[in-house]
Each structure stands twice: as structure tokens, then as C-alpha cells.
Amino acid sequence: MNPHPRRFPLKWAVGNHASLDSMPLQTIPAAVPGAVQLDWARAKNWPEHWKEDHFLKYGWMEDFFWTYSTRLEIPPVDPGENVYFVCGGVDYRFQIWLNDRMLLEQEGMFTPVRINLSHQARTGDELRIVVWPPPKQHLKAQDRHQADRTCKPAVSYGWDWHPRLIPSGIWKEAFLEIRPEFHIRHVDVRSTFDSDMVEARLEVQTELSIPGRGQLRITLLDPEGASLFTNSMGFNESALGDNMLHWSKSVAFPRLWWPNGHGDQPLYTLRVRLIGQAGEEMDVFERRIGLRRIRLVMHEGAWELPATGGTPASRRNPPITLEVNGRKIFAKGTNWVPPDIFPGTITHDTYQPLLRMAKNAHFNLLRCWGGGIVNKPEFYDLCDELGLLVWSEFPLSCMAYESEPGSEYLRVLDQESRSIIKQIRGHACHALWCGGNELFNSWSRMTDQSPALRLLNRNCYDLDPETPFLPTSPLMGMGHGDYRFRNPEGEEVFQIYVREAGKKTAYTEFGCPGLSPAEYLASFIPEQELFPPAPKTNWEWHHAYRAWEADPESWGMFGTLGHYFGKSANLEELVERSQLLQSQGYKCIYEEARRQKPVASMALNWCYNEPWPSAANNNLVNWPDKPKPAYFAVAASCRPVIASARVPKFSWKPGERFSAELWILNDSPDLVSPGRYEAELDFGTRVNSLANWDHPGTLPDVNISGPRAEVTLPDDLPERFKLRVRVVDQPGWDSEYTFIRARG
Amino acid sequence: MNPHPRRFPLKWAVGNHASLDSMPLQTIPAAVPGAVQLDWARAKNWPEHWKEDHFLKYGWMEDFFWTYSTRLEIPPVDPGENVYFVCGGVDYRFQIWLNDRMLLEQEGMFTPVRINLSHQARTGDELRIVVWPPPKQHLKAQDRHQADRTCKPAVSYGWDWHPRLIPSGIWKEAFLEIRPEFHIRHVDVRSTFDSDMVEARLEVQTELSIPGRGQLRITLLDPEGASLFTNSMGFNESALGDNMLHWSKSVAFPRLWWPNGHGDQPLYTLRVRLIGQAGEEMDVFERRIGLRRIRLVMHEGAWELPATGGTPASRRNPPITLEVNGRKIFAKGTNWVPPDIFPGTITHDTYQPLLRMAKNAHFNLLRCWGGGIVNKPEFYDLCDELGLLVWSEFPLSCMAYESEPGSEYLRVLDQESRSIIKQIRGHACHALWCGGNELFNSWSRMTDQSPALRLLNRNCYDLDPETPFLPTSPLMGMGHGDYRFRNPEGEEVFQIYVREAGKKTAYTEFGCPGLSPAEYLASFIPEQELFPPAPKTNWEWHHAYRAWEADPESWGMFGTLGHYFGKSANLEELVERSQLLQSQGYKCIYEEARRQKPVASMALNWCYNEPWPSAANNNLVNWPDKPKPAYFAVAASCRPVIASARVPKFSWKPGERFSAELWILNDSPDLVSPGRYEAELDFGTRVNSLANWDHPGTLPDVNISGPRAEVTLPDDLPERFKLRVRVVDQPGWDSEYTFIRARG
Question: Which residue of A has its CA nearest to B450?
């Protein structure tokens, strides 16, 4: 017998046509997975879509049908084997044809395709996938509202950091597969725990392709790969009547999976083998599992607080503190957006450097924002390994996805959400479901009564009941925005976030924009436009001007730069100043959010990454994986234990009274022993001690605040000066903050 | 062939025993439906449980098993017929035995029983129903917390208006039924509408007892009983594979069902006949349907209000305005509690007078509170006829019904909630589902993450997706309480509710207690205790002292009575004064809530009725159906159009400046034409005009306010005086308010 499954690649061509009943006039080679836009650009030798304004050339493509075709070569099969056409996903609406016969019609890119070709396809037959133009509900609006009745991610219709460029095509692997007709279709694992977490119970659900007779042999390997046990489970179709097999087993003293910063990420391996009636191995399925329990709980003291208690306390401040394995944790992280405009190009190698950097920044939670795609399995595998919890949103964002029960939209959402849940559930990193982004806000106008959200809650409860579900973000108590170092009223993040102390339970989005590095800018903006930046140039296409409708300054914030620094002499100086604001702004917010623990328990900046090169953006890492200076500033602010300071503002006058509240922030599971905390001001030409504090130490996951230190700033205050704080003999806890001399 | 179904009563005996493996030593005749407590009292000639403190004698019964038994007489059956044992509900956990064989074991009183006895039961056999002692999770607490892991309504474990008396037994009809094996098990109807409501689409789902062959003949009769159409639908088992048949049909220009005060309640009749293969009528099922569409929507202007807009607007003020057939309505009504301690005694005749009075009070919404039972079908039938919308809660109240997915509690809740939903869905009056009472408050500590509430939302969406679902009441924006004319800080309802204008979207509970009438008190309090009332007498057992833990004055409020009136000379005077406060307090709140439209759109007082005689309570109608004076006061305040006045307080000093804001409240669908509004003060010995206002009229469902009229009160102010307001030539709109002279 041959090994299973055996996979055979297919060679595709693609072409476009204006209507469903026409055919492509010409075809070009197609990369699968990929996107028709990239195939076309490759065939026509177009320059890169991400440089200058080249993306504009792709606009016409969104109004065409695109048909993929391939000539089948059916490999030889053994008796009892079938040939399947398998495809992970087609973006977005499509039909699959074998010669002149339609095999499947589907709307939705997240539901995989598996078609048994046995007895119907022969070598030389043509398999075609006809892809519809991307959905547009409202023909006039050239924006996200065109996607308000579809599960197509809205971001590619245009966003403040994403050009209008709507990908189409086969975006996941597609191939022929040979398997026995009787095989394992899927294995799901749920783990539950007794109250003190000393025993885990594994519930293993095995779905077979067809009802049959045989045996399952289930093996659990410990994180080092040693077998813990192998159990057999005989079955026959008559006793069961269906193809779902259920098996459970307790594991005493499980090695628990912890988020980054709280412990290891041991991953067990569950191996399920399907044994035929003659004792032969028919199929094998493996998956790694991390044993942990995750809940969303109210913060400590929430029920008693007068401001949040009373009636109805859990709606005034709904539960948003993550409790992992019984331990409440402070969630530090970021908002994750699609790492490329074309999801078909995203692979393990796209995710890996980004996620490693997220771990190195001491992050433990990524919010996968609902405007973008649902990530591929490789993303969740890496997050399992790295200890990065994932907040997964369904593809709804910033609009009223309104629909009556029974509507076509809800039918597609039902299908797509079930597919998404089945792909993600069971991952150790998978912390919570969320219906989508900003759906309860005045610009979206959805409510808890919206059928789409009731449907998602229903599906999550049906298919993954242990995982928390939020209908949207923000909910009450959550800080969400703003996205500026200094707001139009002249307030800085230094004042804005302090005011929220004791009121906000989570900061699910906050932003500080910064320009991209000069050499990076030069890679996609022509030299003659580089300095000074100007609107209606490639700076604007790449989001440095009028990107966010609420602020004409977005995201270059050149006015704010002028306010603090005056005119910049060259691009390098301008970029350095912008990056200083971004870095210092983010440091302030992350550390302030940490100080507000336990009322606040989450800080996620907007955003981590980007899908193409921005000239200015709130992100920490440029496309595809180049960290900006703010990345390192944030990483420093997110270390588990740090010496920190709360300073009331950014720019100071000579002779003014400078002050800093001294803190030690600890969200680690470890004690901090008593010690000496030192603060000093570095004026470049000299360093003055600001304060010494013999701190008493603190408990695991508890911050402490010390004295408020004050000093009069010298008359010869330099343009920049630094506050340095440290704990003696703890060099890993040092922090450094930069301030400037106020202009004029 | 005999007519179907044919029903045969059973004659029951009941007895108690201390353990599951013992038997009753003696049995007594049992009334079915009923309660074992009532059977025992009848057999032992006990006095009525509702008089004095006799309920205390029943305490021991809650720790016993009770076994019902009956000797079967199996009636003759035709070929193809079966004999079923049918029971609507057994309270609460039970087993059903046929001789020595257990046929069924069930926890939950809301799931009916239907057992096919054919081929297993013979005349002379014994059918036994063994009823468990009521569940008690926590043996020490003698209060509702004993019911926090069950679907047994918590109220009977003791409440501030309900004695501790926990009913047990068969609480719905139980009988033998003869039916063809092939029959209609249930017919469900859903109606949906096009956007302008000119066409209704009926979706009829017929569940057959077994898959079979035949025809359904579906007839729709208009509200006058004339046949609109009869359609036939052939089927055979092989084509369908199951026993669910789906049929749909459009009805053009449907006659819409409206809530009380907004139009008629036309009820169509849907008749589904099952026709066998030989053309014979096998079974017929009829149900009345009202065609209407109900939604919960945000109030007018909600998304734009700075206070409620922004982020996340629909959680800050979630949708609570009822929109019926596209028209937003102001919901006036009350909180409905079980009309008897023993649900087994409740019949159509229990409900009818109470519901007719509710209609006559101009109510259009009843909130069926989650601490009590889910009402019987007769309740919903009457509400369909009377135009009373129903807010139905599941049996969860004031506690943390916390449980992990997979737990036994959730299994029972799943079963019970599905049964409840199937019984209630499809009723025209059925306006919304609610998970239960006060679950998000600090004393309950449930949240949107609670598995019980996610399960209920799931089941409602699965089985009744068009009906809105609230997880609990109150949510944000909802006023819920207080329950006093005057609070401990000395504020009166006249000030408290005005302060909420523009902030509250619904008043789901508010109370003003009042004493019961003197002759009513005399029917259950011994004469020697009647006056003066005292604690630790039957006044206290009947809730006049320390009923509500938050206020030692509850519900007699004798201190408040003393504050306003001083000492009362006799019971009649005391009662009259208490009832004055209750009446004037409720008038103030209902009218103030109406003035706050459209931000506020709901006013439901706590509570309407009561399950046994109270000495003092917030209710409007004494058990079983005797209206208190406050009932009539509230009915006047709820007329669709009234002249109304906003007055700042209740007690006035001679020479003080009296003021009244003049209003016309209109929540009717009709215009109010311009006219003359007159206000006068009646001092008993003379009547002084206060103001005349030539009002401009107003639109349907729009209030108008006029001038604020002021006058200096005379030095000879009598102990009571009245404000009368009227619109000339509209005698049905007059209002009258009573005020008092302040003491001392």
C-alpha cells in the first residue's frame, strides 16, 4: 500500500473575462496560492505594486471575472483509494467546473474545498475555477461600505493604512490528493480541567470520511516526544450510525501551557491512527496541543467598586481580564493586521519573523483585527510555540452588517464562521472570539440584537463553548483610540491616559504615528518627492496625508512635528523627530496602562505591522518585517519588571519644575525583593541625581509606586534631555525617557 | 374510525416517603394538576395555607419524596392507534414507572412528557410518578441560593413578597391519550414580512410523529373564520428521510396584529390536516396566529446623542424601544409574577380576570419575571387576544447560575429552555426573550461570558431567531428600582425620576408599596393583631415588616406614613393613607416616564399581582384578582392621551409657592387637535383656577409641554388638596392629583 495522503501539484493558468458567460481571451501562468493581480503583473512585467502609486493600475481588475484552469493528470490509485481535489480557499465567490459540469458553487474564502474526483475525472480533463469580481453592494461608494453584506475582509476596499486594492484568486494551497475512501477527516481536541488544574481531561472527537469499521489508536506524546500512553478504541458503523467518534482521557498533573512571560509553552502531540479491519494503518492524524484554561473575568475589586458595581456591573465594565490557568495576567500586545495586501502570498516565513519579534517585545496577546483576513494555520502554530495569545475576530469591521434571519448574507456568514471556528479551535494560543471591530459605535450601528452577532455567538458556543466571546471591541470600559501623540485640544498622551486611571479596563487600541525610516521611504517614494514631504504626492498614497478622515494631519502629523521642533532641515531630521514622538508616546501609554492594573488589564497598540510600505503609520514594524525605533521603545516598556516613571508632559521650559512619580512595574509571576531605585536627569553635558528610593519590593504581578521626585530645570536646558531610572543590581530593569525643551 | 385525539382522565393517589428506596406508608387522593402540599392539606383538613402563618406547617414536606400512583384502565384502541401517557409537566425532578419498570427519568418541570404505552401497559397496571424533594444546592441557606443550579423557579424558596413554600407535584394536565401512531406532533409558524409590511410570508413547519406517506392540507382562516385558502402538500417518507415538513405561503395585505392601544388584535387560524394514503383525515392541528413584526431598536436620536453616542453607543444604551409593525411604541405595563404559590392550580380562569384588568389599565407589555414560573399556554392565548405584549424570562433570578460547558445544570437548562421556547414562539404577543432577572448586578455576578446565558442566547437564536433576546434586566440605561415613595435620603419619587430625564431608556422595575385594603387584611390576619400593626405578628409573615433586606421599613413603610401623616387612629385611616402614597407615587412615575419619551420608551412597575395575600406590597392587584386603589390610579395615568402635570413634590406648606408644568401626554397613534387646557386647585372649600393654556395640538405619539403654572398656597391650606387638569371637550383626558399639607 502507498503512504497517505499523497499530494500532486497542479499547474494553473488564469485569464479574465467581463461576464460569466464569456471566456478569457488570453491566459497567463498563475501562481497558486497567489492572486490574479500578481499573476497579471508578473506576466506583463509591471513594476512592484507597492512602489509609488502603481497600485492604481490594478483598479480595473476588480470588475472582472477571473478563471483559473488546469489540465488534470490523474495519478494511479490503489483499490479503495480516492482522488480528491483539495483547496484551502478561493477568494471570494467562485464556481468549480470539470469540463462542462459544475461541481461546486460557493461564496466565501474561509471554507475549504474538498471534492472527490474519483469516477468523474480523467487525465486530460479540464478543471476550472471561475472567480467572481469582488462583491460590491453599493456601486457608487468606492470604500469599505461596498463589503457590508459579505464576508470578504473590508480592508482591501481602502483603509487609512491600506490602498484600495482588492485581491482575488486562489489564496491557499490547491492540489490533488490520494487517500483511502475511509480516512480521518479531522480530529478535534478539547481540554477541560478540574478546579485546581491538577487534572486535564482530553475530549477527542474524530471525524471519519465515511462510517466504517475498525479501530482508532490514540497516542499522547509528552512535549519531549515520549509516549505517555496509547489507547485503542474499536468501533463499527452499525453501533454508531455516524462518522463521529468520541474518546476521552484524563491526564494527571499536566504540564501547563503559559503565555509569553508567564512560563513555558509545552506542546503535547496527539496522534490518532485509523486501523482497518485487517489491522493495517489506514490513516494517521497528528496535532499538537497545549493544556491551559483561559477565561475572561472581571478585574479584582470590580464588583465592589462604586463606579463599576451596583447595577448592572458586568455591562458597565464587562469582563476583559484574561485569566490563564487560574492566574489573572496583564495582557500586553498589539493589533495585528494582514501582513500583506495579497493573502495568497502569506506563508510560515511571512509570519515567523513578525511573531518572533512580537515575543521578543514581551507581548503576550495579539488582536487579529476584523477588517482583515483570518490568519492561516501557520500563524496559530507559531503562536502556540511562542506563547502569543490570539484574540480572533470574524471578518466584520466598522459597518452595519445588518441582515434578517434567513438572508443570504447570514447563510454565508454561518458557513464561513463555522469554517473559521473549526480551523482555530483547539489551539493553545486561541484566547477569545470577537464578532468584529467597532460594530457598536455610532458609525457602525450594530447592537446585541443584530442577527449577525447573535449567529456568531451561537456558532462559537456550539463549536467552541469554552472560549470567551465578545460581540465587538470596544465594549464599555475599553479605551479605543485616540491615535495621536497630541490631540487637537493640545493634550498629550502624557495627560490623556493618566486621566483614565481607574476608569478603563482595557486599552484595545491606541496609536502614536511615526514616519518610516528615511532609507525605507526612499524604496517606494521617488527621490524628487522625498523632501520636503507634500500632499498629492506619493507621500499621500502611502498615508502621510489625510489618511484618517477624522484628522487632516494623519499620519504624517507634520503640524505636530512643527509644534514641538520647528522646521526640519532634511528628511533624516524630520524622520528622527517623528520617531522620537512615536517612541516616547508609546512608552508613556504602555507604562501608564500597566500602572492602572488591576482595573486595566490589557494594552494593545494600534497597530503592529502593515500590509505594504507606509510613509507614516501607527505601526511598530514596517512591511514586511522591519522594526521601527518605536518597536524597541515598546519592547523596553513591556519587559516583565521595569523601573518606570510617570511624568506629566513632554516639553519643558528652562527653570520649570520637573516632576516624576517613581514606579516599579511588575506583571511577572515573580517577587521583586527590596532594593534601591535611582532616578537621574541627563542634560548631555552633565547628569544630576533626581531621587533615590529604598523600595520595599513587591509581590508577583503587583506594581509599586514610590515618591514623586521634583527638581527645577536649569536655565541652560538643552534641546533634549533624558530621565533615567534604574534599580541597583537589576540592569535589565533600567528605563530611559527623552524630553525636549519647549520652543519659544 | 374514532375521533382523535381521545383523552381519558386518570385517578391519582399520592403519598410521601423519606428515601428513594422506600414507599409511602399511606396514600391520599391527589388532584392533578395540583401540588402535593394541597393534597395533604385537603386530606388532613388543614386550614388555608394563605391565612395567618399556616404556610409554616408545610415546611417538612420539602424534604420528602412524593409518589403519585394510578391504576391504568386502557381504553379500547383501533388498529394503527396508540395509547400515550401525556403529562404537561411535573415539578420538579421525577421518575415514571410502569409496575417495576422505569419508563423515564427527568429533571425539569417545563418539558412535557409523552410516553407510548402501547404494547407495554395493560389495564390494572400501576403507573407511578416518583417526585424528588425540591433541589437544594446549599443545605444551610434557607433561601433562594438553594436553587442556584436548577431550573426550579427560585421564588418559592422565599422572597420579599412570597413565603418559603416550595410546591411539588404534577402541575399540568396528565391523562391517557389515544391517537393514530401516525399523527401531527406539532406545528410551528413563523411569519416574516417585506420591508413595508404589505406582504407576510408564513413558514409552517409540521412535525409528524413518525415518517410516513400522505398529504398535509393547510387552511388559513381569516380573523372572522372565513377560509382564505386551502393548499395541499403531498409527501412520502422516502423523499424526506425525516418527519419535518416545511411549507410556506405569502399573504398579501395581511391584517396586522397590534398591541393594546395601537389597533386591533386580528387572529388568523391555521389549520393543518393530516390526510392518510386512503384519503382519510388522520389528524388535525389548529393554531391561531397574529401577523406582526417586533424588533428592539435604539430610540430616536440615540446614535447622535453625545451622552449615548460615540463608542460603544449600543452598549451604553442598548436597544430597548419596541418597534411593532414598523411603529415605535411606548411600552406601558407591569411586572407579572406567579398568580399563585401553587402553579398547578393556575388555569385560564386564574389568568383571565388579571389580564383583562391589565388591558383595561391600558397596559401593553407584561414582563414575566424570571424568579417565577414560565406561564401556561392559556396565558399566552389570552395575551394574544388582549393585545398584551409579553417579555418572557427564563427561570434564572438574582444569583450566579454559574456552570461550565458540559455540566449537568447546563444540560437541564438546555432541555428546559428548548421546551419553553417551543411552547411560546409563534404567539403574536411574544415580544422578547430575557435570560433572567438582575443577573449582571453585583449580587448575582453573572456576565456576558456566563455559559448559561450564552446557551440561552444560542437556543433562542436557533429556535426563534426573529425574537429579540436580552441576557438580563437591567442593562445599561435601564432604571430598575427603587421601591419607595420616599427614600432614606428624604427624596420623593417626584424628584428622583425627574432627575433621570434623558438618561434612562426604560424603567423595567419601579415600586411604591401600599397596604392592602382593611377588609382584605382581616381575611388572613387575626382580629387581635390587626391594629396597630406590629412586627413578629402575621403582618410580618405577610411582608409588612423587614420583607426586603435593603430596608427594615419594607413594605409597611410605617415610618414614611408617620412622616407625612403622623399617627393614624385606626386601620382604615392607616390603609387609606398608605394607598394614597402608593397611588400618587405610581401616577407620578408612570407619567414622568412617559414625559421622557423618546429616550425612555418603557415603564413597568414592580409589580402587578401576587401569589398569596400580602399585608403590604408594591403590587396593584391583590391575590387572586382584587384591584387596590393604586390600580385605578395607574390605569388613569396610562390612558393613551391625558392631560398631565409635573409637580416638584408631594407635601406643601401654607404660603409656599406651588408649581406645575403642564403637559399633554400622547402615546396613541392619533393626532391631538389644538384646544384649551385648564388647571385648577381644589382646596375642598373652594376651587381656584391655576392656569389656562391654549395648546397647539400634537402629532401621533408625541407629547407636548406647556407653561409652568405657579401660585402661592393659601394660609388656610387644608390637609389635602387636589390639582385637576383637563382639556376642554375631552373629558376622557382629565387627570387629578392629590397633595398634602406638610406636618409641623
Answer: A468
Q: How far is A107 from chain B (nearest CA, A)?
A: 23
Categorize the per-residue pLDDT at B239 as very low, low, confident or very high, splitting at 50, 70 and 90.
low
Homologous superfamily of B6-180: Galactose-binding domain-like (2.60.120.260)
Nearest CA in chain A to B458: A458
**Do B304 and A406 count as a contact with CB atoms less than 8 A apart?**
no
Q: Cα(A579)–Cα(A583) distance, rounded to whole angstroms?
A: 6
> What span, in angstroms and rounded, lies between the C-alpha atoms of A214 and A233?
9
How far B625 CA sits from the closest chain A CA (Å)?
A: 32
Place of cell 528652562: A654
Name the superfamily (CATH) of residues A6-179: Galactose-binding domain-like (2.60.120.260)
Rounded distance between C-alpha atoms, residue A471 and residue A507, angstroms = 17
Task: Measure Cα distances from A461 to A406, A480, B137, B452 in Å.
Answer: 20, 26, 26, 11
Cell of B354: 388579571
Asked if the A184-289 domain carries CATH number 2.60.40.10, the reply is yes
Answer yes or no: CATH 3.20.20.80 is held by domain A327-523+585-637.
yes
> Can you name the CATH fold of A641-741?
Immunoglobulin-like (2.60.40)
**Contact (Cβ atoms closer than 8 angstroms) between residue A735 and residue A643:** yes
- E strand or H helix that includes residue A627: strand A626-627
Q: Which residue has the cell 497567489?
A: A34
pLDDT of residue A242: 77
Question: What per-residue confidence (pLDDT) applies to A309?
Answer: 47
- The arrangement of strands across the sheet holding A675-682 comes to A651-652, A735-741, A720-727, A675-682, A687-695
Quick check: B313 and A441 CB within 8 A? yes
B624-630: average pLDDT = 98
User: If you search the block for the grid coordinates 379500547, which residue do you land on?
Assistant: B76
> Given CB atoms, is A316 within the 8 Å cutoff of chain B?
yes
pLDDT at A211: 87
Which 439-468 residues of chain B touch chain A by CB within 8 A? 440-442, 445-449, 451, 454-455, 457-458, 461-462, 465-466, 468
- Secondary-structure percent of chain B, ordered helix, strand, coil, rounded to 5: 20, 35, 45
Q: Which residues 463-522 of A are in CB contact (within 8 Å) with B?
A: 465-466, 468-472, 474-476, 478, 480-481
Residue from B458, B498, B547 nearest B647 by CA:
B498
Least Cα separation, residue B632 to chain A (angstroms): 31
Nearest to A192 among B318, B406, B468 (CB): B406
Query: Which of the listed CATH numbers 3.40.50.300, 3.30.450.20, 3.20.20.80, 3.40.50.1240 matches domain B298-637?
Result: 3.20.20.80
Q: Determine contact: A241 vs chain B, CB below 8 A.
A: no
Domain segments of chain A as ranges = 6-179, 184-289, 327-523+585-637, 641-741
Percentage of residues of chain A with pLDDT beyond 90: 92
Q: Which three cell numbers stand for residue A537?
A: 504626492
> Which residue does chain B place closest to A293, by CA atoms?
B404
- The reply to whether residue A462 touches residue B457, judged by beta carbons under 8 angstroms, is no
Nearest to B346 by CA among B372, B365, B385: B372
The answer to whether A455 contacts B442, with C-beta atoms less than 8 Å apart, is no
Fold agreement (A327-523+585-637, A641-741): no
Query: CA of A455: which chain B residue's CA is closest?
Result: B461
**Count of CB atoms situated within 10 Å of the CB of A20:** 10
**Interface subset of A 352-411, CB within 8 angstroms of B:** 404-406
Strands (E), A446-487: 469-470, 478-480
CB contact under 8 A, B295 and A454: no
Contact between A458 and B461 using a beta-carbon 8 Å cutoff: yes
Render pLDDT for B385-429 as a digit per residue (tens, 0 to 9). Answer: 999 999 999 999 999 998 888 899 999 999 999 999 999 999 999
